[in-house]
Amino acid sequence: MRSQALPFLLLSIRGEDAAADDEYSAMMRFAGLDTTGMHRIRLTHEPLGDIDLAEWSGVILGGGPYNVSDNPAAKSDTQRRVESELLPLIEDIVERDFPFLGCCYGVGTLGTVVGATIDKTHPEPVGGMAVAMSAAGRDDPLFAGAPDVFDAYGGHKEAASSLPSEAVCLASSADCPVQAFRVKHNVYATQFHPELDISGICTRIDVYKDYGYFAPESAEALKSAVQQWNVTYPPVILERFVARYSRRD
What we know:
The protein is 31% helix and 23% strand. By secondary structure, it is of the alpha/beta class. The strands form two sheets. Strands 2-1-3-4-11-10-9-6-7 form a nine-stranded mixed sheet, sandwiched between helices. Strands 5-8 form a two-stranded antiparallel ribbon.
């Protein structure tokens, strides 16, 4: 009997259907997968449940409005439940050095697990940014061959101010010292969004215009501004992650 490729698991923290569905579609499109190759769990809508990592090729964590560093009293019941389920899974992923790619919220969650300083010292506004590779990033299997500086889309309130010695910083930007890092050999997080293209970030702007990232009345101007950035490289990271870690049962 021929073996089958094990799917990738996308964990979503987006409660808003438009943003969640666009994220899932973009992740699959850029990774070259369909719904059989990438299964989604919407943690805002259902519990994580028992995850047997042996059943998956890798785990991808999407971004969203949660901040790990927020005061626990200010977090919703849903966020507290999601993080109580998610952080132990990431601890297991790190312990096993299991393939993981955390996008934006991944910096906060993975960083928390490994002892990084996660705070609101280095926010970035919603839009484009220039991401600069580090020397370690240029040698990393997932990022090797990337331009020394490439455009990406993002926007966040919290970030990693510092990393522990066992984490390797792969990229930075002018306003954020940690745009990507790796733990061990196979556990990654990016502050920018590798799944975002112009259409995707415009959807996010529409969905999150009342979430405090920017003045709601500036939404249309922001959608015009993001079109000035040449965001072509970040989706390659998703494609490489899937190509590198896809395995069969």
